[in-house]
Every structure is written in structure tokens, then in C-alpha cells.
Amino acid sequence: GEKDNGKNCILSCEKRKADDTDINKDLKKAKLETKALKAKRPGFTDDRYNETSYYIENGLRKVYPYYFTFTTFTKGRWVGEKILDVFAREFRAHPAAEYERCIRAGTLTVNYERVDPDYRLKHNDLLANVVHRHEVPVTSQPITLVHIDEDIVVVNKPASIPVHPCGRYRHNTVVFILAKEYNLKNLRTIHRLDRLTSGLLLFGRSPKKARQMEHQIRNRQVQKEYVCRVDGEFPDEEIECQEPIEVVSYKIGVCKVSPKGKDCSTVFKRLGYNMSSNTSVVLCKPKTGRMHQIRVHLQYLGYPVVNDPLYNHPVFGPLRGKGGDTGGKTDEQLVRDLIAIHNAENWLGVDAADDDLLFSKPVSDDKVGEDDCDTGPASRESSPRLESPAPGVTPSSIMTPTLPSPSSGAEAPSEVNSPAPCTLAPSPVASPSFNDDSNDAKSDKVTVATQTGCTPAASSHASGLATSSASGSNDALSSDPHCYECRVRYRDPRPRDLVMYLHAWKYKGPGWEYETELPLWASIDWDEPENS
């Protein structure tokens, strides 16, 4: 009996080992399949830089529309469901008939293969969707090199240009422009700046250097100085604000002073006061690196950045958040009001993975973590992550329902203010007419919209074209019959929509120091032009 029991035990153990081996083999196979699918994703080579080119018009850097493929893996809750049912239920930006058209046309695929609309999704399925991308204009001011050597690249970033691809920006980002126009590729970010913030931006040219600089920032060995222009007469004496800052919403990237927040400190010193405009130029020295730290502390002190579209807004109450007073609003109400009032493309942030960005609400250009204090270290390889599934990086997709329209308060999509890229079927490229006449403006087929929610006069696209590559001709202004945005004529943003008066001026660390020239608005006697 004991022998039989021992034999059974051995057999049982061997069976468990065999089962474990099979499981491990299955897991290994799944990982290899996943790796293979990821490797097939478009955008991991230098070809991505040649997808399109720039042209300069009205002082703006613009990008010719181009085709792009978004990808994501099947979420667990979708497994076993029909692909069409999933899209019709979860992604209401388009009717089910449009998704069915895309599936049948082969522009919405599974594992890069065409499937039927009743295909049932499986674990590890990779969904890919081709879109016709229209990017948002940024300033045509050049990115200037402050310092470059074999280890590091330091630039002076103009306002309005995001550091990384995010929201509706991809080629119109610092990392793409540096790669395309300066041949500076495979850079690793050391810190970040908000899209509307200008100034010093550091990149490592090697993992070792990036880690070294990241360590210095994390351990507060880097002294940072910013210059800003604020409302009102800032006190003459030096002020240190040590109010803790809490993130109210990671989804939209909004913070406030709160006892529940993280400890932080910013030292402020007035550089001068302009009586005619009732504004002050202030030097800011953040000792810590919380999200939006400088802007939130200035709001709390009652001297917000003059043109801060977020923290200098009456949505924070009659006092605009001074002293932490938001007019009695709860955090939930504040977030709801912010979403309802502001155009999401202007300032809202997001904290979402690539998969969520592909199939969720639209994201904006300023993701969580890109704070004005360069918070903490953000070392990573810029170029490879551009199209890879990294949090908060890859742009929003065609399948994203849009935010409610501020005017209606309803749940209907606000397509004019924040149109999402659209689904399409590949077709011969045609050159649309860009005559800016009144008949077009009144046409039922043309919607007049804005890229940033502003309403200046539209300009003609037919003149003033200048490209950064050989492909820059009017033919590059391609249209697609299924593209919503090809039927929308956008007004250009005004200069005031492209800047916030906050500039990263000086950074100093162990054995190194960099600084930029100051922007025009940092001059004490400067007054904002009326026509800006």
C-alpha cells in the first residue's frame, strides 16, 4: 500500500510538473506573440519622421495631414464579444455603421488582418485602426540650441510646442522637430515643460547621462529659476510659499493647495512692477517639483500668471482661487465646471495609458506630469516611446467620444472645438480647394472651427507655404472622403493663444549651469500689444 501511495505521489508530482511546464510554455508563447505584434506596430523606425512635412504660414508651423495607425491590445472585458458590438457600445464617437464600414474596408483590423464584423475578440488580439491625422499649429519660432555635446542637448523651447507627442500633436513636438530638422534622434527626456511654457529643456544623449541628471533632479541638487508675469503689484519682499499641493484630478491635470497635498516650497522675488498694466515680473525658485507648483502657488497668493488659461480663471470662484477659496465648490464640481467651460485642447491634461487613449475620451496636449516645475525626473528614451504604449504619450484616436459642448451642457460631442481624428478608407489622394470665400463658409459641407477654441479670422492656405522637406507641395494638403476634419476649415490661433508668461530661465547643477535669453514679455516696461 505504501508503495502504491508513493507511486501515485510520484505520478501526481510529475503530472503537476508537466502541467506547469505546459502553462509556462503557453505563457512564453503568448509573450512571444505579443512581442511579435508589438514589433509590427508602425512608427518604431525613422520612417515615422517622413510621414509628412511642415509648412510655415502666418507665423505658424503647420503639418500636412497624413495617414497614421493607432493600435491597442484587446481589453479583458472585450474577450468573447463581437468586434462590432464592442465598438458600437463603448466608442460612441461614430455610429455602428461607420465602424462596420471600417472593418469591412480593412482599415480596422485584428492582428493586422481583415476580419468580419462578427469576429469575436480573443486575449492578446491587437486592434489597429488607420486614421487621417490633422495636427494643431504651433509657433514657427525656432527651437534654439543652448548647449550640445556628446552627452546632453539643451534647448530653448518656444511656447506652444509640446515636448512629446500627446493629444493632437505629434510632428509638431520638440522631439520630432529636433529629429527632423536637427538630426537629433534617440534623445532621452530628463524633465518636461508644459506646452505653453517656454524655456530650458534638457535631453540626455545616453541612458547613463539621463540617469545621472535624473538623479540630481530627484535629489534636489538642481537649482531652477523661472520668470513669470503676474496680475497685480506683487509684494516687494521675498516670499516663500510652502503650501502643500494636491492633485484634484489626474484625468484633466488640475491641482490646488490642500492640507492633504504633498509638501512643497517656492520662493518668489519681484523683479519689477508695471503700473500701466498693473502687472509684475516675478522670479520663481521652486525648491520642490510638484505638478503646476509655480502656477498653483501664485494663484494661492492672489497673483496668478497673467494669461494662465487654467489657474487665472473665474471657474475657481470670485477670488479665482486666492487663499484656496474656490467659491465653495467641491472638487467634483470644480472638475465638472472646468471640463464644461474650457476647450479641452487648450490646457486639460490626462493620465492614461496608450490603450486608454485609443479608446476613450479625447486627451489634450498637456498631460499630467508636464508641470511648470519640471517635476521630477522623466528620463526615458524619447524617440522609441513616441508610438509605443507609454502612459499619456500617444495621441487620442478616432474612436474617442468628445467632451460636452460648453454652450449646451449636453452630452453631444463638441466636434467643432475638439474634433477627433477620423476613420477612413484608403483612397486616391486629392488636393482640396482652399479658397477662403464666403460661399464656402456658408456651405452645409464646411464647418468653420478653430484649432484652439479662439475665433480670429481665417487665413488662406493657398499662399505662404514653406516646407521642411522635399514633399512640401500643395499636393501634400491631402484630403480623404471619410475624414471629418477634411471638411472643417480652421481659423488660425492668435499669438496670445500660443503663450503663457512663464519661462524656465536658469538651471544649475553639480558642475553645470545653463540659461536662456529672456522673452520680450519679461521686460518690466513691456505692454501687451492690443492686436495680439
UniProtKB/TrEMBL annotation:
UniProt region (Disordered), positions on chain: 362-479
Biased composition (Low complexity): 405-415, 457-479
Active site: 194
Domain of life: Eukaryota
One BP annotation, GO: mRNA processing
UniProt entry keywords in alphabetical sequence: Isomerase, mRNA processing, Phosphoprotein, RNA-binding
Entry keyword annotation includes Isomerase: yes
GO molecular function, one term: RNA binding
Domain Pseudouridine synthase RsuA/RluA-like intervals: 151-299
SUPFAM superfamilies, per database record: Pseudouridine synthase (SSF55120)
Family stated for the protein in its record: Belongs to the pseudouridine synthase RluA family.
Function: Pseudouridine synthase that catalyzes pseudouridylation of mRNAs.
UniProt xrefs under PANTHER family: MITOCHONDRIAL RNA PSEUDOURIDINE SYNTHASE (PTHR21600), PSEUDOURIDYLATE SYNTHASE RPUSD2 (PTHR21600:SF40)
Name recorded for this polypeptide: Pseudouridylate synthase RPUSD2
Protein source organism: Heliothis virescens (Tobacco budworm moth)
